[in-house]
Amino acid sequence: MEIGEEKAGEALVIAPFGRVDSVSSGELERHVVGRLDAGARRVVIDLARVEYISSAGLRVLLIAAKRLKPPQGALALCGLGPSVRTVLELAGFMSLFAVEPGREQALARVGGASTT
Amino acid sequence: MSTGETRRLSVPATDEGIKAALDALEGLWAAQGVSRAVTWPVEVSLDEVLANVVRHGLAGRGDAAQVELELRLEPGDPPRCEVRIEDDGPEFDPLGAAVPDTSLGVEERPMGGLGIELVKRLMDEVQYERKAGRNHLRFARRLVPMEQ
Lengths: 116, 148
What we know:
The structure holds two protein chains of two kinds. Chain A has helices spanning about 25-35, 55-65, 80-90, 105-110, and strands at about 5-10, 10-15, 20, 40-45, 50-55, 75-80, 100. By secondary structure, chain A is of the alpha/beta class. Chain A is globular, with a radius of gyration of 13 Å. Chain A has one domain (about 5-110): 2-Layer Sandwich (Transcription Regulator spoIIAA). Chain B is built from three helices and five strands; from the N terminus they run βααββαββ. The chains are: A alpha/beta, B alpha+beta. At the A-B interface, strand 5, helix 2 and helix 3 of A face helix 1, helix 2 and helix 3 of B.
């Protein structure tokens, strides 16, 4: 699985690409957990380039949410297309996450994006 | 849409097998000219069911265990897709599993149990049968956009 990344000040954007299914989600989990272990505390997961997500991918989002609970951490999701949004809604996940339309709003939500 | 199409394949009970099955489904959409905007619920459902079979029912048997698949696309307006999945693992009716509580918060939310619930909510029909020592799961959906 291709995973894009962008640093914005103290914040980190992680952007998986393609299908987030039971096969590819293992790689996404290792990537996200690796960044959290390395100290990332303000994280945006940008799902704009995700075709669809299954429950294995939801599990990775839940792991990130559990480890980035405020006030020590901050997590926001952005770029939800219709398929990703529907699955999150059906799973009752929308209330568990800060969800923003775009990357800029999500970065503002987690804070720390300023480099000054 | 042309005349419809049925694809049968047998995949190993491994990650490679799941990937091959999802690729076959993508190939079916491409061959029949169906928009991915309406097919993703079928792909998510196939992933959920196969993940269950590979990681639980046939766990540890690897390449030696095979999952039989039938992917059918019926023409129409809208078209309809039906998927049949058959394996020789221990009897397991995923539809009989406990329904997860999707209203719990981050702390209380268990890590698993969501997959089959998603299949039930995404598909028009889901049916399980144990026949001749094999698990048969069938699900189908009319390929229309999900209601928001």
